[in-house]
Write a structure and sequence with these properties.
The chain has two domains: 118 residues, Immunoglobulin-like (Sandwich); 152 residues, Immunoglobulin-like, CATH 2.60.40. It has four helices and 20 strands. The strands form five sheets. The protein has a six-stranded mixed sheet. A five-stranded mixed sheet has the order 12-20-19-14-17. Bound molecules: copper (II) ion.
Length: 314
């Protein structure tokens, strides 16, 4: 294109060729490098700072938010540092690859790279799949990958976005039998009990924020490992629910929507009034042991909340 500098007609032809190339999909796709580094570390699992021996991506539970666009070439690298004791791996639910090669376990001290292209937009789960998978996930090896649609107008524009990832807490992370027997004590959003709920835990210091009238999109992932989630906004209604976060799956005016283990959906909510909604898993043993997040609607909501890095509130 840069070398074409002749008459206006030549420029028109060049533009037409360029558009045709775009339409045929032959134009070179954007390459995005994504690296995740498993780390076996102690992290707090409640607002008081009770520590738990987690296995993580990048030392965080959940792992980092991975965000790409439909059609990108994702060049992914997993670095399992030699200081780790266990093999780890990645399973991107947004990927269509060979499970035996791309998702294979990587030993401590080894690195794995593979390339893939997300062909469906949406909100997807990622997790470690190394044996025993139930323990690697229950210890904290999970996160979200958001694949934005190629068409920027496919979804109504969200004024704010938040990520909420649900997971059960098993008190002894070494006891795989308890995980198999579903003996959890609490259900957490984003790796801690009542993390965003000062109503049920006075030690909680964080809430999700937005202004009345704003469209708030919750990227909700159920990392399980065993329980289904019936996700409901107390004192609100989901304006739209998009199973797997895909615009073509739009559901309208729902009170709750079930997200199974290993599944994800995008939930849009708009509040006409100031006040709060409590986002809960309406299975009450789950809600009352930790799976409640307060979404506060105020006209002076912090403009940084629900944007940029603050879509997953640490
Ligand atoms: Cu792992």
């Amino acid at each position: 294109m840069n070398r074409i500098n002749g008459s206006r007609n030549v420029k028109k032809l060049a533009l037409a060729l360029c558009v045709a190339t775009l339409a045929s999909g032959a134009i070179e796709a954007r390459t995005v490098k994504v690296t995740l580094t498993p780390r076996e570390v102690d992290l707090p699992i409640d607002n008081k700072g009770t520590m738990y021996r987690t296995w993580t991506y990048d030392g965080q539970v959940p792992g980092p938010v991975v965000r790409v666009t439909e059609g990108d070439v994702v060049e992914f690298t997993l670095i399992n540092e030699k200081t780790n004791k266990n093999s780890h791996s990645i399973d991107f639910h947004a990927a269509r690859v060979n499970v035996l090669s791309e998702f294979e376990s990587v030993k401590p001290g080894e690195t794995k790279t593979f390339t893939w292209t997300p062909s469906y937009p949406g909100t997807f789960y990622y997790h470690c799949g190394s044996d025993p998978m139930i323990q690697h996930i229950a210890r904290g090896m999970y996160g979200v990958i958001i694949v934005d649609p190629k068409d920027p107008n496919a979804l109504p524009k969200a004024d704010r976005e938040y990520v909420l990832i649900q997971a059960e807490l098993y008190p002894n992370p070494d006891n795989q039998d308890d995980m198999m027997a579903n003996k959890w004590t609490n259900v957490m959003f984003n790796g801690a009990i009542f993390k965003y709920d000062p109503v049920h835990d006075p030690n909680a210091t964080r809430v999700l924020q937005a202004k009345p009238g704003e469209r708030v999109r919750i990227h909700f992932v159920n990392a399980g490992v065993n329980e289904f989630a019936s996700f409901h906004p107390i004192a609100g209604i989901w304006d739209r629910v998009y199973p797997s976060g895909n615009a073509k799956n739009a559901l309208v005016g729902l009170q709750s929507y079930v997200v199974g283990p290993g599944d994800a959906a995008a939930f849009d909510i708009i509040s006409p009034v100031e006040g709060a909604n409590a986002l809960v898993t309406h299975s009450l043993r789950q809600a009352l042991t930790g799976a409640i997040a307060v979404l506060q609607f105020t006209n002076d909501a912090d403009p940084k909340m629900g944007r940029g890095d603050n879509i997953l509130v640490r």
